[in-house]
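Ticket #4471: structure export looks truncated?
Reporter: QA, pipeline team
Priority: medium

Steps to reproduce: submit the single chain below to the structure queue and open the exported record.
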Amino acid sequence: MFSENLLSFILINEFRWTVCFIIIAYVVYKITKLYVRVINLPPGPLPIPILGSILSLRGIKHHWIYEFKNYNKKYGNIFTFWGGNIPMVVITDPMLARVLFRKNEISGRPSNFMTDMINKNGRTDIVGTDYGHTWETMRRVTHAAIIKYSKTDQLMYLCSDCVDKTVKLIIENEGLDKPFDPSDYIFQLFINILATSAFGNSYLMDEKEYKNYKYCIKDFRRENNLMIVLIQIIPSHYRDYNDSISCRNFCDLLIAEKVKTIRDYKESAQYLTDNNLSMVLFDILFAGTDSSQLTFQWMLLFLVYYPHIDQKLRQEIETVIGDRLATHEDRHHCHYAMAFISESLRLRNVAPIGLPHKTLERTTVGKYTVPKDTVIAYLQGIVMMDDKYWSNADKFKPERFLIDGKFNNTRPIGYVPFGVGRRVCLGEKLVIADLFFVLIRFLQMTSDYDIVLDSNAGIDPNPNIVDTIEPNNYKILISMESFEAKGWKHS
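Actual output as written to the record:
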């Protein structure tokens, strides 16, 4: 009996030791494998298993981009940041980025929950899908449509009409001399511009469909609902599409390109499916609305924080445009307005790390060789705040974009608000046009107002110091000298 108990004890302990040995060996193997990968990639904050480099960001008080700026100083223009066990090679050299991101082998997109959900069931969008024939066709068609639409008079009238309605709504809802948060109004302004541009719809704040769009754009958990709605739009537009009349909106331009491609028997017609064209609308509405409205929020905050800049803009508008609607041609004459927009995009870029790329094969990045499926990111936000490329880079100075008082159309090497390379932001032309028309009309419509920051509640944010990519905790007040001049009644 004793011998049997002893044998059982020995066997149980041997089993425990064996299990412990296997667990320890597995952990050592995984740690060794991790650090072998670390050694073979560019240097960076040392990762730990599971958590990666995340702990290096603990305790920071401002936006994470400032900590990445420190990494840039410590490790150089190429460093690696680990999100869990996934490495991301970060580039902060604009010349290197321009060369690298032109290459097909660095034109992929890393897979994640959101891109997997978007690009399923036969759908292919432009932003999140990998480089390939489908992507090339969709990008070519979309780029041509955006260029066409961004030059139309429709956009000019649309932006002006949306601004007029927004300013009137603010006055009616908020009144005068009362602090309020303008973010919801700005969001509605841009979603109406983008939705009307894309497929001819506009919304009121209390409409169910508008609330769904807003929720979908601001909450990734329900983006499928937004896609379902948009997928129904392309077929519905076919029913009343007529290529003998001018295109009504961006959706018509996409359909026109599809029809033309099919008539010309081009091989690329196979990629222009209704699902794929619907995903173009998704990209425009989803990405365009959020980035544009956030940028304009920063622009508004700069206006109220720097009254002398606001005054310069209003004087230029009065001299060049007066009370009429701004036109595309006015962009060539409103030099300070264009400089103001450019400086806002530089200092408060709402996508400071852009959209990550993925290597499609083993690739050389600078002096390093990185394996296939490695995430590569261009930290454009750091480049645009680097003293190497800008004097007093942390200061808001629209004048830096002027030469002898005229807007400098030649971009400085460090000016990359829309990224670089083959996957540079498609909507750049449309965004700039939207921001210009909205800015001009907003200042025209508020020519009789004083718009100031609310300091009474202790909320007086400095737009030069941020801890998020969007303005928060700020309110403005509107006061007016001759409210009745607009012909509106204030309740």
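Status: closed, not a bug. The export was complete when the record was re-opened. Leaving a note from the reviewer for reference: Residues 220-229, 482-491 have pLDDT under 50 and may be disordered.
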